[in-house]
Amino acid sequence: MFEEKRKFLRYNVTGIKASFKLLDPRTYSTYHEKILDTAANISLGGIALRTKTELPLRTPIGVDIKISPEHHSIRTFGRIAWIKQTDPQSNDFDIGISFSWWNNEEDKKLVYSALQNQEA
């Protein structure tokens, strides 16, 4: 039987986009950045994104979330929690990012509100 390990409920989302940058000093010269790609799902504890690059687990990462064109980008930080190759032919990877720090509490509330609106 499958046991859910997540602390936060994940929401499959539409319209929420995100970009990211690795924060590992060993890779500062290599910028792995997604330019506002659509998020697969999100919670207050993390986000799932698709990338063309296999990234190392536990790498520190900065994430900018754009919940709608009207809102400013929300910056949060975390680590890569998991990675799965979606298709060996396309070289696409899904990555899970676990949030560990938000720039401010208001941004966290804005994401929570957006998630509640997605559910409605």
Structure description:
An eight-stranded antiparallel beta sheet has the order 1-4-5-8-7-6-2-3, with helices on one face. The protein is globular. The protein has a single domain, classed as predicted glycosyltransferase like domains (Thrombin, subunit H, Beta Barrel), CATH 2.40.10.220. Strand 6 and strand 7 (74-87) form a beta hairpin. With 120 residues, it is mainly beta. It has one helix at 105-119, and strands at residues 11-12, 17-22, 37-38, 41-43, 46-51, 60-66, 74-87, 92-102. Helix content is 12%, strand content 42%.
Topology:
Elements: E1 11-12, E2 17-22, E3 37-38, E4 41-43, E5 46-51, E6 60-66, E7 74-87, E8 92-102, H1 105-119
Antiparallel strand pairs: 1-4, 2-3, 2-6, 4-5, 5-8, 6-7, 7-8
Primary descriptors:
120 residues, Thrombin, subunit H, eight-stranded antiparallel β-sheet, single chain, 12% helix, 42% strand
Global Rg: 14 Å
Distance between the termini: 30 Å
Number of domains: 1
Q: Any idea what the shape is? A: globular
Structural class: mainly beta
Q: CATH fold name, please?
A: Thrombin, subunit H
So, CATH architecture?
Beta Barrel
Tell me roughly what share of residues is in helical segments.
Answer: 10-25%
Helix count from the secondary structure assignment? 1
Number of strands: 8
Q: Whole-number average pLDDT?
A: 77
What summary fits the major beta sheet?
8 strands, antiparallel
H/E topology pattern: EEEEEEEEH
Q: What's the CATH class, please?
A: Mainly Beta
CATH-level-4 superfamily name:
predicted glycosyltransferase like domains
